[in-house]
Amino acid sequence: MRKIVSAGFIGATAYAMALATSAQAATTYKVVVVAATQHTDTGVAYSAGQTVTVTATGTAAWGSEGVGKRSLFSGPAGNTHSTIPTYIDPNCPFMSLIGQIGGNGPYHCLGAKASFVADGDGDLLLVANDGNLTDNAGAYEALIAPP
User: How far apart are CA 93 and CA 113, in angstroms?
Assistant: First the structure.
């Protein structure tokens, strides 16, 4: 099954592709989380009490220096040395991959690999933990275990 979700955000196009990887037929969904996009909907739905497991790779950059001149990079685990005061969730490292179920519940620190119990019903939403997404570049690739 293949699902593509698109949304425009400050001239950037966010997309998520939830598809079973060929090596792990129907056991994992692969989703690209563009660092300049608010809440990428993975299209993977969970019910309260189900275990959510995410593994992520990739590189994202932030700053107002402009594309090609950024020197501030992070992987999905985030940057624990940042002095940037604007986070979506101050309990998780800056620029780390964070997730939320259904858009209403609390955020969960995901980083490069994490599991948590869904605290509500809805799709898993993913985002880079930055309060100003407009000056970001790059993306994280998340592998999501099915519910």
Answer: 14
Half-sphere exposure of 102 (CA within 13 A, CB side): 11
Domains delineated in the chain: 2-144 (2.60.120.430)
pLDDT tens-digit series, residues 123-140: 999 999 999 898 889 999
Give the global pTM: 0.80
How many helices and strands in the chain, by DSSP H and E? 0, 11
Taking alpha carbons only, the member of 29, 144, 48 closest to residue 101 is 48
How does pLDDT run across 6-24, given as a tens digit for each residue?
333 332 323 334 344 434 4
**Whole-angstrom distance, CA of residue 8 vs CA of residue 11:** 6
